[in-house]
Amino acid sequence: LRARKHVFIDTKSWDLPQTDGMEFDQYDTPQSRSIVLHEYGEILAGIRILPTKARCGCYSYMLRDAQLGVINTIPQHVLYERAPTADYVWEATRLFVSSNVPAKRRMMVQSLLMVEMAKAAVDEGASHVVGIVPYVFKRWLERLGMGALPLGPKITMDGDTSQAAIMHVAGI
Predict the structure, then answer these.
(1) Torsion angle of alpha carbons 96, 101, 106, 109, nearest 10°?
(2) Which DSSP string corresponds to 40-63?
(3) How far separated are the first and last CA of the chain, in Å rounded?
């Protein structure tokens, strides 16, 4: 949570909840899982996954809550269709790679993070993961040996051009 704060609040200047040097929100619940890569005590990268059937108060998961207007930080039109809610679909959010990771190692770290995210999702019973990914996700994920399909239109948020997508993670 401290590494997330450094990336999303300190570096990207996102307006997110924080306390005691940590960034966390309503989706950091006992139902969520954090996948963190570290080396010699230094955090290299991380990502959070959450079941699409998750519920905590009035919240479910980020894409669905955006579509329903429960949160207003993501456009309601983020998805072409109704947000999925199924045991076999999980959502991935808060992907980051530390700025301390040298450029020559970033692809390897991203690849390892995505493989570990896929393994964690499959361990929880998922075959698919949804999330907001860079608009160039097809090229990016193909370089990582993964495929994905768009679930929504191209959107620009906080200076990043992104798109909702679904990734098939079973068998990775």
Answers:
(1) -70
(2) TTEEEEEEEEEETT--BTTB--HH
(3) 27
Q: What is the pTM of this model?
A: 0.92
CB 146 within 8 Å of CB 114? yes
Rounded-to-10 torsion of CA 48, 51, 52, 54 = -110
Distance CA 172, CA 128 (A): 11
Whether the Cβ atoms of residue 130 and residue 91 lie closer than 8 Å to each other: yes
Own/partner contacts of 40-43, CB < 8 Å, gap of 24 or more, are 42/98, 42/100, 43/3, 43/98
- Tally Cβ neighbours within 10 Å of residue 134: 15
119 residue type, one letter: K
pLDDT of residue 105: 95
What integer is the mean pLDDT of 135-148? 75
pLDDT attached to residue 138: 75
